[in-house]
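User: I'm writing a short methods note and want a consistent example. For UDP-N-acetylglucosamine 1-carboxyvinyltransferase, I'll paste the sequence; you return only the structure tokens, no commentary, since I'll be parsing the reply automatically.
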Amino acid sequence: MTAVTLDPPSDATVDTALVRVTGGRPLSGRIPVQGSKNIALHLYAASLLADSPVTLSAAPDIIDTQVCAQILRHTGARVEVTGGRFDVIPPRDPWPVVHAELGRRVRTTVVLAAAVLARAGQVAFPWPGGDAFCPRLIDRHVAAMRAAGAEVVADGAGMRARCGPRGVKAFTVDVDTPYGPSLGATVTAMLLAARATGASLITHPSIEPEVTETARFLSERGVRIHFDDQGLHVAGSDWIDGGGFAVAGDRIEAATMVMTAAATGGRVHLDNITAAGFPRGLVRVLTAAGIGLSDAPDGGVQSQSRGPLTAVEAATGPHPDLPTDTAPQLAALLTQADGTSLLGERVYPRRDSHAAGLRSFGADITTTGAVIRIRGPVRLHGADVEASDIRAVTALLIAALAAEGPSTIRGLYHLRRGYGHLLSNLATLGADITTVPGGPDAHPVHRR
Ligand SMILES: CC(=O)N[C@H]1[C@@H](OP(=O)(O)OP(=O)(O)OC[C@H]2O[C@@H](n3ccc(=O)[nH]c3=O)[C@H](O)[C@@H]2O)O[C@H](CO)[C@@H](O)[C@@H]1O
Ligand SMILES: C=C(OP(=O)(O)O)C(=O)O
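Assistant:
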């Protein structure tokens, strides 16, 4: 086991670039959807379990991909990220540390730690990152590690987990929370169970596509996994094959593009996703708002608006309900809908950092506890705003594109963390959008 030296990570979270948008034109056209950020992040962790090289295709071209590549390299993996391929040669004997600074940048830190623990029998990891829109607990991840036989202790900087000499053991764990089954803890438990000797059971598992795609990845590589009424059963394996696997299309980016087009009075044709790839709860809400989705005869999904947008009442929830990661964009869309919309947030009680930003554009939005009320339609005007999380930034972009006149949006780090080509795709759809790098010599990057 050897420590790997990395160049110190750059201070990438400081991003002084901004986007200039002149809104007010309908956006329409055909664009591809990237590989799903959140599915990819869990597959990067799962790839550490393999005993031969893994190639993930359609890996999204985002900051989180680069951060995970660095975290894997720090454990001793060889990782190449080029042209949408994420090639991993997993270490036989990983260095049992999730890099402290890098681990604080992504949400899947504990999932990555679980993969290292499963292989090395011990791991130290920092508190996870991701967006800090409200407290994001990890008690179910820790419960899974403890159930798998690890002693887990916290110190100021993070946690350390250590198993006995035989490594992880088979276990039963419940990953339910007051907010629904934990997506991340389900994958953490699945990765631990995949390397344990014997049969494990995860009760009340999440069934988000991040979970089912990671399960498909593992089962195609020889791990026996199935869901039934009791939960998710995993029969551990001491050999896990490598090989190729494609990251599914990003349902959140797809939903964002559909809503962006609709907010401006346009429509999109999206490649690399099918209508079935949109969660049912989201399709129900879009349909109620007056937006249809259908599989296109030549592949992909087409959106169409059925008359003026209509207000809706909806609440987020675990898959297949309305995804929390689409609620900020939906709030922006509903500023253009006729009537009063009510959006409840059930997964994260206070995920509403976008509301103040939308008000800067003239939106009529009020927040009461976990419910956001939006009155529309409102003629939005341009604004200068700063986004503070990954989905808030796209909500503000939607408002800017639907508004009359120029806007500027800062906080592009959050956009780059989750979207590889969203701005150039918007330009392809007809948006007047310019990225201005930070500093005095700023110049346009995307323009139409
Ligand atoms: C990288 C990634 O895939 N992130 C997604 C993942 O986050 P993440 O995996 O963090 O979300 P979880 O499903 O674990 O969390 C859902 C809820 O359960 C709570 N909880 C979670 C774990 C735990 O041990 N205890 C606990 O109480 C959380 O605070 C939250 O209120 O799922 C979220 C919900 O679909 C999405 O918004 C995120 O985009
Ligand atoms: C909140 C999100 O990401 P993360 O969990 O990486 O913060 C998201 O993808 O909407």
